[in-house]
User: What shape does this take?
Amino acid sequence: MKSLAELAEIRERMKGKVILCEGSNDTRIVVGLATCGIAAGARPVFETLAEGVKREKLDRVTVVQTGCIGICQYEPVVEVFQAGKDKVTYVKMTAEKAQRVLDEHIKGGKVVEEYLIANANKA
Amino acid sequence: MSEKACGTGVQTSLNDTVFYKTQRRLALRNCGIIDPESIDEYIAMDGYKALGKVLTEMTPDGVIDEILKSGLRGRGGAGFPTGMKWKFASGNRGNVQKYVCCNADEGDPGAFMDRSVLEGDPHAVIEAMAIAAYAIGSDQGYIYVRAEYPIAVKRLQIAIEQAKKYGLLGKNIFGTDFNFDLSIRLGAGAFVCGEETALMTSIEGNRGEPRPRPPFPAIKGLFGKPTILNNVETYANIPQIILNGADWFASIGTEKSKGTKVFALGGKIKNTGLVEVPMGTTLRHIIEEIGGGIPNGKKFKAAQTGGPSGGCIPASHIDTPIDYDNLLAIGSMMGSGGLIVMDEDNCMVDIARFFLDFTVDESCGKCTPCRVGTKRLMEILDKIISGNGEMEDLDRLEELANYIKSASLCGLGQTAPNPVLSTMRYFRDEYIAHIVDKKCPAGVCKKLVRYEIDPEKCIGCGMCAKNCPASTIVRTNYTAPGHKLASMEIKQENCVKCGACMTNCKFNAITKG
Assistant: This one.
């Protein structure tokens, strides 16, 4: 890195990818893959989502790993970000649940309410 | 607030929960948001902007002044002002080799703050260490991280490689004449290596043992050169302070403790996890609001902070605003941020023994007060727990604890008696119950627990005897009025106090006392 301008260039290029801009059609799915998440079984969840997105050629959707969001009790955690909408937090996920989120929420546009954090203690 | 997802009207986001809303995330700002293995995503969140600002706009002394002014204190436990540490090491820039180290040897039972930062936002630590190196005039850094954190180590390695590739580590960073290189050193899991002098001895390739201070590391540290050593969480705050200014940081927290603190919530609490709150937040708020309270309707008894070096905060102090000085005043300490919640089912003598058992194991053995003293302390506790204690033992505990505190070489020994002293201070009646009544009020200490069957309530079904692993429950000759079968009885001499009889009795005929 030889200059601040170079850094600013990367920043501008990446900004819209991490925090989706208003009007963007992209979807960003993050899966908590810190020790706590992995111990609770986040790897198969991540793989299901990543492979599903690739298989179905959902090129406006990215699946990334992230660190610990703090709710170790509810791992594995999956969060879905779409521009102009509140992020959606799914908790206590499994590979099967991830597949359903992919089919109903990501492709179908309908939030899978059963898996939401707000309903985590009701089941 | 934007429209609810898909107009469901349901709370969809973690951000809407009480758990999240009252937190303030500075050190954890990127954790759970960015991909820790992508330097580009870190840069998108203003990453390395602070380093750029420091190198192109600020003098090294200006950086130190800014950190001093922010009031940032070490997050590793002792709370020494970070800016002061840097100032002490800043003399004679350019003429002597200096080192910048990061303490990621997180060893307190139940603490995982540093692990989460390293796993979630490793570049923040790298950037901060480069800033520190510029401030004191160093060109080499070491991160000492325990080998038990393989994911943290892997992500750090990836982050360092990416930073090198981008020229954010290496020579002539941002086209200036500032050079900085960084390597990882793995710790083998000895608790004492979290102590600064032992940590540096270990980096040097020797057995991790502390040495007397002074000389302090800022004067004579790693390889005998001036060295600064900060904790992971301390570093994670640095880029934010540079970007937003010292005044911004100093506006958060209390008069003497600025900023936020990350706590690892564990024990008897609904929301186990990692939280970050402004300094001065009360324990009650953390436990009842953010933590969601104690499960199963049990009563809060105490919270343990600071791990094996800290103490227990009883329910009577639950409204104390948490900062460095308040915690010290009530006989505990901030520590690195482990916060273990205990309810009425926890025996405080047993808790003290648990932490002491840990320090006995982890004492490096170099100095006698710690090596022998902690062992003797534990023997007295064992005596009390097994029902052989005398009232004089309490005085012996206190006297010995104070000797260990004042005579030990390093922080490990100097703080090892804290769990004993603080439980004796707030829960003396429990110690007395163990000694005088030979009873453990919480029913934890097995040698003092006694299971008994009430012959009037027992219907003689025999479920207890069937489930008794020691086969020590027999039928008596007595049949209570209205019952068809004779009642059961526990022969105490062979009872292993497992409690299986009580769990399997459907008629509440078994009592534990």
Notes: Chain A has four helices and four strands.
